[in-house]
Design brief:
Blueprint: E1 10-14, H1 19-29, E2 33-38, H2 58-63, E3 67-71, H3 77-87, E4 92-95, H4 101-104, H5 109-115, E5 120-125, H6 140-146, H7 149-152, H8 166-189, E6 194-198, H9 199-206, H10 208-213, E7 234-238, E8 244-248, H11 252-262, H12 277-282, H13 284-295, H14 300-309, E9 313-316, H15 320-324, H16 327-331, E10 335-338, E11 345-348, H17 371-377, H18 382-391
Parallel strand pairs: 1-2, 1-4, 2-3, 4-5, 5-6
Antiparallel strand pairs: 7-8, 8-9, 10-11
Helix pairs in contact: 1-8, 8-9
Length: about 400
Amino acid sequence: MSIRPLDGITVVSLEHAIAAPFCTRQLADLGARVIKVERPGGGDFARGYDTQVEGLSSHFVWVNRSKESLTLDLKQAPAITALKKLLKTADVLVQNLAPGAAARMGLTPEALHQDNPGLILCDISGYGNNGPYRDKKAYDLLIQSEAGFLSVTGTPETPSKAGNSIADIAAGMYAYTNILAALLQRGKTGKGSVIDISMLESLSEWMSFPLYYAYRGANPPPRNGASHATIYPYGPFKAGDGKTVMLGLQNEREWVQFCEVVLENTALAKDERFDRNFKRNEKRAELLQIIDACFSKLTSEQLIARLDQAQIANAHLNDMEGLWKHEQLKARERFTEVATPNGPIAALLPPGLNDSYDYRMDPIPAVGQHTDAILKELGLADSEIATMRASGAI
């Protein structure tokens, strides 16, 4: 087996839902040992979101492979004692509990660093560990709203949320990269660090060009459904067989090619109504009539063939079934299997082909599957473990 970048690194995570589990799953992909602390009984509440994947939750199976499940009732002293003992030798603690919850359990940076100066602490929350919004509840959709994402996504009439948990994913990605940076920093200084990740700040960074487009009070880009807000033609178009094809033009050279090869209308390329992007953007309805007149005579595959011939960027409008069957993913062998308590399931390998190691793709744990083994590692006797189980501490 090849050596992975995070082999030998132990991560303890007080996690639930998506943001923290997505962060720690990526650390596990790189070889880290991730110990997921869950509530006795039901565990991470994301386990119960749905039963779409062989009776398991679609959210949970995505972000929880390659982890060990340790159940602890952190309201009980023996459970807290066991957790603190575990953290004395851990490398990273990730948590996305309610603001202040970790501190109330005595898990402050000062206390933890006294026992383990090299420990990296990563807190993930909706709004960060200070400021007027610190204690405000924060779910993914609410952060999409606060960060302005809804204001630029959807149709002119109706704002729309992202179809996935984009604010959680953004926070999980920044937690992941900050932890990797902190591990490198620790290699230079020997000391751990404290990381404060905010979902609002993570998604605000991803607001990218719309934020600057509205610089100093300028009008923001309008909502245009699946079409680009400021470039045209760029978005979904119907072919004659009723299927939708996505296409995008980025410059005037491509506009000429689009007219000559795709629309077979050379004169249109020189039409002063449409010879610059800002003009095409202003006259979308007028240009759409011309495009539709051509596209209605073509099947989606004929249209894609013309777009490819003209070297115009294009794509199929895939659904989830189309993605599972995507020939490019299959050609690059991007699917594998992971084990679950209910049998093996298909899984995408993490993005990024690296020729020096293989990603870790180990099983998704059952609730508390590794509790006894981990507590024995910490030196607890069978009788102590039995007492904790009898009291509901594990």
